[in-house]
Write a structure and sequence with these properties.
Elements: E1 3-9, H1 14-31, E2 40-46, E3 56-57, E4 60-61, E5 67-74, H2 79-97, E6 104-111
């Protein structure tokens, strides 16, 4: 059910991008109850001039290595679960890929279950 979009500056190796996606997937599985094999991700690199981001916001200082993660998912997670997810992703990206925690931007977009079709023109989650 989550649809993940990850945007970053061009130039990172394929293995870096793959690991980035796996970190997000594992964190979703372990902190916000995403089922196994529910992995739909688009990872897009952009030329440096195509990301228009302030140098700082709300006490965070951003570098050229900023990673923007947007996840569309069903509504229903608690604030505590979301906070745990945000921390887990930032910590794991820092530990495994060496990026600064400040450079991990995450946005969750919550939608109703009937807004999904996983193929075949069927709304599999609609009641």
């Amino acid at each position: 059910m989550p649809f993940v979009r990850i945007d970053l500056i061009a130039g990172k190796p394929a293995e870096f991008r793959k690991t980035l996606g796996e970190i997000v997937y594992q964190a979703m599985r372990e902190t916000i109850n995403v089922p196994e094999n529910d992995k739909f991700q688009v990872i897009t690199e952009h030329p440096a001039g195509d990301l228009n981001i302030a140098g700082s916001y709300l006490g965070n200082q951003y570098s050229k290595d900023i990673v923007l993660i947007q996840i569309t998912l069903n509504t229903g997670r608690t604030v505590a679960m979301k906070k745990a997810f945000f921390k887990r992703v930032a910590d794991d990206i820092h530990a495994r890929l060496g990026l600064r925690r400040d450079d991990v931007f995450i946005n969750l977009v919550e939608v109703a279950k009937e807004n999904w079709s996983f193929g075949g023109g069927i709304a599999q989650y609609a009641e």
